[in-house]
Amino acid sequence: MNPGTLQPDRQAPLQRPGDRPVIELEKVSLRFGGQFSGQLGGQFAGQFAVEELSLSIAPGEFFSLLGPSGSGKSTTLRLIAGFEHPDGGRIRLQGLDLTGAPPHRRPVNMVFQNYALFPHLDVWDNVAFGPRSQRLAAPQIRRRVGEILEVVRLSELARRRPHELSGGQQQRVALARALVNAPAALLLDEPLGALDPDLRRVMRSELQRIQRELGITFLLVTHDREEALSLSDRLAVLHQGRLEQVGTPRQLYDRPCSAVVATFLGAANLLPDSSAGGLRLLRPERLRLSETPPQQGECGLRAQVRELAFQGATVEVRLAGRDGLAGRDGLALIAIDTSANLPENLCVGSELWCRWNHADTHRLADCPP
Amino acid sequence: MPASPRAEAAARARRFWPWLLLAPGLLWLLGLYLLPLLGLVPLSLSEPLSRFGLETVFRGRLATYLEVLQAYGPILWRSFGYAASATAIGLLLAYPLAFAIRFRGGRWQPLLIGLVVLPSLTSYLVRAIAWTSLLGDNGPVLALLQSLDLTAAFNGLGLLRDGRLLNTPTAVILGLLTNQLPFLVLPLVLAMERIQPCLLEAAADLHAGAWRRFTQVVWPLSRPGLAAGILLGLIPAAGDVVNPLFLGGPNERMVANTIDNLLLVQLQAPRAAALTLVLMALVTLAVLVQLRGRGLDGLPLP
Hints:
CATH topology of the largest domain in chain A: Rossmann fold
Structural class of chain B: mainly alpha
Helix content of chain A: 10-25%
Oligomer: heterodimer
Number of strands of chain B: 2
Strand content of chain A: 25-35%
Helix content of chain B: over 70%
Order of helices and strands of chain B: HEEHHHHHHHHHHH
Low-confidence stretches of chain B: 295-302
Number of helices of chain A: 9
Distance between the termini of chain B: 39 Å
């Protein structure tokens, strides 16, 4: 990637100032062992699964919750769906306080990680389950189910049972079954986790297409950073039950406020900040490797190649600093570049210069959390 | 390429193994079930040689079946009636029990299942005798009914006869019920075990209230267990000997008692054989109806 050009953020949806948020969490907390119905009772009892989480998601937004497993992102989704009830804080959906409401009285629908399709019902009846629960008129149910099956391109398979479908098709049924209820927000719990990589890519763009087509708010939970970065209008990084940072993918990638966010969103070089203390983030694709020392206005460091990993379009180079002067000896560095930009005779053990522009680095903790 | 002798031997062994594993069970069924049952066919078509012995001679006499049906049709009818009543009441008890064990049992689930099975660890003969003292004229059950002033009401409902419990259909059905309860509960728990909690969450998420979650998800998915329970409960109950003998009077005899009586008291072996075969045919019919009906059909089994 050329470090000079900044790609603009993907067009954010039009937000009128008067729009009230679809989902609003206000200092929501949940401890293990209390109300929490999860499996982790004993060992973690008393610890927070989610701690003082405040979030606000606008209508039509594609919002992602990103975090490692155990960070509380799925729990947050279950709190919003109503499967868990918080120990503290408020949950508002479309402006209504629904903190204690049961799942079936909430205007949101969920796509489960394992899809949770009803095995005894065919595709049509699975999708019609929600509208029938809401006692819509039969012609209206027929119309809605028919339409949504068109949207997810499953009309041909309406009479199949879930076990007769492929993983990708089951995924579409789960999507249709939730979307047919015209929810205020669609909650997706690692929806692509069970699919193989190729299908993942297809379904990723499908998700994006469907979200644009219907204009429904999507709240996606994922631990896949590429998924979150490529799909989201905004995303939130969760860590140990706490919200680390919220922002657009570009903001979080380029200007993270903590090392946790910086390293979770991508490979990162964390350089000691000589002037102000603390750390500066330098993304590996902004690091240039060359035989020649840094020129005027550039920063640089002599380093030795420790590992080379060919990744197809790019090569990942891991290096160790050889700079005895500035206390950066042994500093682990990582560079990612296309093979064409790398010196030709590069091999493990070669020593060369790492060069970067100071403007490409970002001081962590420069932004409010 | 021709297969090596070793590979051929291995392939033969692979074909051979399943049969070897099946053999003990198949031999058992063949020798101790199918052959004796088939032996009853010629016996049922024979005539006794004398009134005082079990010797018979084969005459190809089909009329025995007609006589048996005429004479014991009501008893057959009563047997299936008792068995069906016991199974129906049993399911009313077993279904909520199984539901509670599966969805509310939590870590107590194994213990609860153990408690359900526990009564089966005592001999059913001992249990029937125990019931005679529980249900007897001076037993605790009648004492309770009397202290609650319910005797007259229960008499009116036909549950008691002249203020007594023993030697009534009620007692026999209660006895059959206790015998089959574990066989109703266990298949139901197993069937419900396969209903993943996330399906109930999904139903709730799709705006279904508790009643709709039950009727649309739990009930249809537990039906295989229901079918298995009915088979496991109904069939042994229809052929029960002990409960009618101890808990019922002469008017509560069931078909197995009659067969027993025909063979060992009246020495009418052909009639006993004919009645046995009629009972077998009816039971087989019940199984076929269950298996071909909505029971196991159309449900995806993992």
